[in-house]
Structure formats: C-alpha cells, structure tokens
Sequence to fold (296 residues):
Amino acid sequence: MAFEKLIGNEIIKSLLTNMIEQSKITHSYLFLGPSGIGKTLFAKEFAKMILCIEEKQKPCGICKSCLQFEEKNQPDFIMIEPEDGTIKIEKIRQMQEKLLEKPIISSRKVYVIKDADAMTKEAGNCLLKTLEEPPAFITIILIASNESLLLNTIRSRCMKVLFHKIEQEPLKEYLKEHHMVEELTLERLKSFDGSIERALQIEEKKEVYDEIQKIFGNVEQYSLLEVKDRLDCLYKNKDIIYDLLDYINLIFLQKAITNTKYITYIETVEEVKKNLKSNSNYDMSIDKILYKIWEE
Fold:
C-alpha cells in the first residue's frame, strides 16, 4: 500500500493517492511545510507511484520501474539537491538538458528538487522557463520549508501541497517501533516539534537532555556548586545551545502552570538567548543563567 511506511499527514496521503488513481497528475507540485517531517519521503513515494508501470495498483513493488526505483537506478527519476547550501543555475541547466529526452521505462519522468528554497535567484528564473512550458511527460516536485524564499512566479505555477507537523502520539509510536525509544517526557515530546528529524537529533544527545531534565526539573534540590559540576554539558555543547535553552524553557513552562516564579526563570533564559545572538561571551552567558536562577 502506498505511503504505509510514512507517518502523519494522512489527508495528503489520500490526496496524492487519488491523483494517481484518477490519472490527474499535474506537471509541477510544491511540497511545503516544516523541515524534518518527511516531505522528501512523501515526494519519493509519490514519484514511485507515478513511474510504476503496473496498471491496477501503484506502486506495485514488482514491476521493472519499482524494482529499479528501490535500487536507486530508475533512469526516469532525478533528485536535485543543494551543494554548499545552494542550488545554482548550472544545476537547473543540467536538468533542462535532460528534460526533452523521453522516458526510458515509464510513461513519465519525475524530477524532485529538494530544498528548492535554496535556489539562487538566477536558478529560480531559469527553472521558471521550464514550469511555463514543461514537456507533457514531465512532473517536477519542489520541496521547501520557507515559501517566501521562492519566486512568486514559481509558486503560482505549482500545485501547493501543505504538510503539517506530526502529532505527538504517532511520532511517539514511530520512535518506539523503529528506534527503540521507550519513555518520553512531555517536555521531550514537545521539543521534537512534530519533526522526526529533530526527534532523532535530540535522541542522539539523550544523556545531555536527561541531565538537563533532572537538574532544571528539580532546581530546589541542588546547590549552585552541584549544578556547576553537573551541567558541564551546557558549556560543551555550543553547537546546539539554542535547542538546549529551548528545552530548559519547556521544563520551566510546564512548571509555571502551578508556580508563577518559573516565569522569571523563563525570562532569564530568553535574555541569555538574545545576548548570545549578540555575540556575548559564551561561558559568561551560561554562568548568568545558573547564577540568576539559583539566586532566585
């Protein structure tokens, strides 16, 4: 069954499946939504369905197209991705050179442009020519998180498919089944922000988040000296400090429901985030959180 291995966005699964069943495939789509929620996986599955050469059930999983798709050598499927953070005009021109070549296995060709919002203005204008007059056998799927970075003329020529964050319960079940993640606090679930990618990144640093949960979830039980000794992780994980500070505030926010003093702690953390963005001394900024909270 199509999309059976993907979680969330059930309405989109039905929408795309109906398009296949009714043979109403358009020439360009814009898959738009938060990062890390599976838009690329949806695009690949949809492409596999479009390219499947079985008449009744798509994707069948056994035809030549499906088998080669799984082996990542289906000649009618092309994935375009950023290099060094951008998609330059040369990439789009290379794509256009291949566009006029007819499909080899399937009746259509599918091009997926991942992180299309990373296209340079020149690349976007170049792509626009193709979107205005695409060959009849071409389907182009743009994947983006920030719609405002795309040219208005590109957005207007694509069928927009809006993806939403994955709800907590399905995400929890997915992590339990596929990644052996058993117990999750409410704060941890909220920190995933409906993103599988973010959830896996956070779980990679599980020990750090567990220690933060233990300390900031029980601030009254520890002296400042103990805290300084045990929270070395805050000083060492500079690359993810904003994620860690957001997590601390999720803990405080939950506690603020029954005790308003935690609102002051939240304000302290937010102030430090602003200071860090203004290039304040890193260690001194972390010191400020600990000293100010434990003063309270």
User: Anything to note?
Assistant: The chain has two domains: 10-162, 205-295. The chain has a mean pLDDT of 91. Strands lie at 28-32, 77-80, 109-113, 138-144, 159-162.
